[in-house]
Write a structure and sequence with these properties.
By secondary structure, the chain is an alpha/beta fold. The chain contains seven helices and 18 strands.
Amino acid sequence: MTTLRMRVARIDALTPTIRRLLLVPIDGAALPAFSAGAHIGLHVPIDGRTQRRAYSLVNAPDHTGHYEIAVQLEAASSGGSRWVHQLRIDAELDVSVPRNDFPLDAATRHALLIAGGIGITPILAMARALDASGTAYALHYAAREAALMAYRDEVLAMPAATCWLDGGDPRNGMPLADTIGAPQAGRHLYVCGPRPLIEAVLAQAKTLGWPDSHVHSELFAADQDSTADAAFEVVLKASDMTLTVPADKTILDVMIDAGLDPLFDCRRGDCGVCTTQVIDGTPDHRDICLSSQDRARGDFCPCVSRAASSRIVLDL
């Protein structure tokens, strides 16, 4: 994958825990184009090795002189968000070119955009792109309180946007059934944010009869609470290895630690690049990309999913 050498040109504090960074190319060359929903990969030094952390691009696709990202500092961060929050103006870093696993469907005639928390980043890029193309849309942005809403003023300035505050109780927030409504020809739903929001939106859309092809989601896995996770054993049949997966690491993490070179990209369970097969054991699926049919035939995303049993055997 092509890597760009970039410089931090600007930093803004959007909330007490979210920083916006504008990145520009060191050599002044034109940046690779991208489409709304795309992300870039920051090459982050963690525990003595370089790891890639994906962050959604917020700027409109026609603003290609820079890349704009917004990064939330996570209390349970593995190091990525902490490293980004320590960057200063003129810091240099390596960045993987944009990749889009959450694109706007070309058949969209009206878009329903739903964002929760830091999930506003790709959703706002979509709204900007839809504005530019003249495509109708409605944007709904949910958070606990106004002070935690990055880009709130910009969202409120959009005529078709609504902000919802629930004070920490989802029952007081966005009325999903009314917000989503019945499916319509050419209407597509896009949702990004923490897992509980995405699961609630997907379940409500299904209840209302939305076809799967008209519902699109991207998970921000950093919001997961992993405090209740337990260690388990993973058997990699093709590699003839047995590894222990501790509570604070993923199967993908321990494979990399063991010197293996697994195929992966997003590390959030939303792209499906790392998908493998469960041979034995009970999976605890935590991805957002696999359908119920995929899971029924044994598909499994080792970047986020775990084992509900004490041992799981994978075709890796």
